[in-house]
Amino acid sequence: MQRFVSWLIGTLALLVLAVAPAFAQQPLKIGFGMSLTGPLAGNGKAALIAMEIWREDANARGGILGRKVEFVYYDDQTNPSTVPSIYSKLLDVDKVDLVVSGYGTNVIAPAMPIVMQRQLAFMGLFGLNVNSKFDYDRYFQIMPSGPEPAIGWTQGYFDTAMALNPKPQTVALVGADAEYPALALAGAREQVKRTGLKVVYDKTYPPNTLDYSPIIRAIQATNPDLVYVASYPPDSAGLIRAANEVGLKTRMFGGGMVGPQFAALKSQLGPLLNGIVNYESYAPDVDDKFPSVGPFLAKYQARAAKEGVDPLGFYLPPYAYAMMEVLEQAIKGVGSLDQAKIADYMHKTEFTTYVGKVRFGRNGEWAQPRMLAVQYKGITGNDLDQWRKAGHVTVLAPAPYRTGNVATPYQDNRK
Amino acid sequence: MESATALVLNAVIAGLLLGGFYAAVSVGVSISFGMLDVVNIAHPAFIILGSYAAYIVNDRLGVDPIVASLVLSPLFFLLGMAIYRVYYLCFERRGQESLRGLAFFFGILFITEVALILVFGVDYRLARAAYSETTWRLGPVDFPLRLVVPFLVSVAMVIGIEVFLTRTFFGRAVLAVAQDALALRLMGVDTLRVKERAFALSIATAGVAGAFLIVIQPVQPAIGREYIGLVFAVCVLGGMGSIRGTLAGAFILGLAESFTSTFAGPSWAPAVSFGILLATLAFRPSGLFGR
Question: Are B81 and B200 in contact (CB under 8 A)?
């Protein structure tokens, strides 16, 4: 009996010693705010699912630095004013080891002063040109808008436009009174200077506008060759419907519309999207260029269906996962949580992620732009499944991803 | 290129159509806030609730969202009665309606939003109607039916409420409560019942306005907050408690928004609208049709 007890105690001691390293350390806590309510909550929840998938994968690989990864996150309500207090709480009360951003320019910018004050390495999720005002050397951003984000963001649209024959002469610029559209329009104005186009309309509208037909009519009155739009989902829908109702005549319409990338608007607008030139970060038409995205989306879509979130997940989720992959690889590469070393490593290293190779430039943006300029074509009805197959999204730029030519004028492609 | 005349005509039509929708979302506040002195800050939440109710019926049964909202309006009426009863018992009866009552309606606003998020998620929803993508053209003027149909139903609803309030015994009782509730009680009238039903009517109009909204644009649970300022501005401009004033105020703000968007720039529209409100109040503090 005594031998058995000794044997049992010995076995238990060995077991404890074997698993001790995994549990002896505190979990590695990553904190962030995320839009779980408010106008961009659909995107925020989709990003959160992707990040949770990464967390589970990372823990299945043994965690990071031998520590289990945990998230601490709060709902920023898609409201920039909530962001400073969220990040202060994460750092001072929750004592997180690392922070990453929530989704979008509007909530990344207000986190920057706190992150900079604490000298943290900071990964941003789809912020447009946020670092232009801060010039913070530990900021990194996963959206592939390139080293000059405002210009890179609009490059595909304007390159496509300027390749038209005859060359367009005039452009109308319109966008919402908000952070992202303001930055996108600033980029469009830079493109206008570069290309020598004449601006015939350049105005913004309040985000709670209900009827966009007066705006479209005012644009039509200037008879522009191109209409560049920087908008959020509800206004994208309103502008697209108004363009159809008014019968907008122009050669290219779209550019920087947030919304048509998501399943909800793809399904609701259906054939109204035909002819619009816009941006996407992934499309089934170029699936061969994104070999890891398909398997990831299979995982994501199974969860999204249960949680009532964007059932396609083409736009944001692969990049939300990739953002966390970059962070994981950087910490493992450095072997510690030293923020300066992590930032330095991120500047110097090319990362292999689900969305492909990622290398950051001096300002923390992608070294090369890769956002896809696309045109929606041949959409019939409101069936979402048609978007899962190739054939409805023609990739116009950048050149390595190109699958076809732009069809103009816009009005001939609307239906 | 569109001629200036066509732009003006289209701006007028767009303004009137928009005003029709603004009237629908504001008439309930005109009743609750203007007549009953109940600061129902949760009114936009009931509008969004109406949007989702219409969406469910439209999505599951294929019924036109506006028809669905009219069929469902008795349920919203009952909901309004229940909410007013709670408000009365907890706050109004104790004379605590001013601040605590306001907090109560704020609470309802947030609870409704969260409940909608839990049930429907956070994606944008849009109800489809047979006329959603149809536009009638009369010469150079466009009539998008997704705005025309809500406009027609809205104007009919607001005129119906005006007739009801001015031509029926119960309606006059509501107006009397608005003017002097104490005098009415001294005459033996059950003012609680009158106010309860009038408030319920205001919630029923919110349900119908919600269906208009989801026909006009995609809706998500928190979108109602964007209309709080607008609905109160329409009521104050028209004159507190005046239904015809609400209709006039809605058309004025709709036209102001449309003309500003067309000729000056849409970002000026809120400034122009609220400028009109301030100017009106400077010369007529009780609003256009206020007493």
Answer: yes
